[in-house]
Amino acid sequence: MKPTTRPIIGIDPGIKGAVALLEPNGCLTVWDLKEFYSNDLGFNCLNENMFNNFVQQEFSRLYENAYVICEKPQIRYQDGIKTSRCVYRSDGVMAAIFRCYGFTYVGAKEWKKFFGLSENKVDSIDRAVKEFPSWKDFFVGPRGGKRDGRAEAALIALYAKRYRNIPIF
Question: Does residue 169 lie in a domain region?
Answer without folding.
Answer: no
